[in-house]
């Protein structure tokens, strides 16, 4: 995937992980969401994980087990679990409690 903060920029500020993925959704019109259709539309697009690493949407979704996500909350839960399982999640809440 290309660097989302490269020549095209990222609307003035970097956006990371789930924020990038959620921005691709219309909460009212896209749910229930077929993960297969989402990948067909966005699989090659970049997701910045940190200041050095960029992966594709497809790489994140390799770890999402659900074929359909009912709403935005289910989307965030599935993607968050997938990113944690794949070692793509750097912030652990227990470190900030």
Architecture overview:
The chain is of the alpha+beta class. The chain has one domain (17-89). 34% of the residues lie in helices and 10% in strands. The protein is built from four helices and four strands; from the N terminus they run αβαββαβα. The protein has helices at residues 17-22, 35-42, 57-61, 72-85; strands spanning 33-34, 46-48, 54-56, 68-69. A two-stranded antiparallel sheet has the order 1-4. The chain has a two-stranded antiparallel ribbon with strand order 2-3. The longest helix has 14 residues, at 72-85.
Task: Provide a short characterization of the protein structure.
With 97 residues, this protein is of the alpha+beta class. The chain is 34% helix and 10% strand.
Question: What is the topology?
Answer:
Layout: H1 17-22, E1 33-34, H2 35-42, E2 46-48, E3 54-56, H3 57-61, E4 68-69, H4 72-85
Antiparallel strand pairs: 1-4, 2-3
Major beta-sheet overview? 2 strands, antiparallel
Distance between the termini: 34 Å
Shape: globular
Q: In total, how many domains does the architecture comprise?
A: 1
DSSP helical segment count: 4
* Weakly predicted, low-confidence segments: none
Percent helix: 25-40%
Number of strands: 4
Which features characterize this protein?
97 residues, alpha+beta, two-stranded antiparallel ribbon, 4 strands, 34% helix
């Amino acid at each position: 995937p290309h660097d989302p903060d490269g020549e095209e920029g990222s609307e003035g500020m970097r956006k990371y992980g789930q924020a990038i993925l959620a921005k691709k959704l219309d909460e009212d019109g896209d749910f229930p969401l077929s993960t297969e259709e989402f990948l067909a539309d966005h699989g090659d697009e970049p997701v910045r994980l940190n200041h050095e690493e960029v992966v594709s949407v497809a790489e994140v979704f390799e770890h999402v087990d659900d074929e359909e996500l009912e709403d935005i909350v289910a989307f965030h839960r599935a993607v968050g679990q997938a990113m944690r399982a794949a070692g793509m999640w750097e912030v652990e809440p227990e470190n900030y409690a």
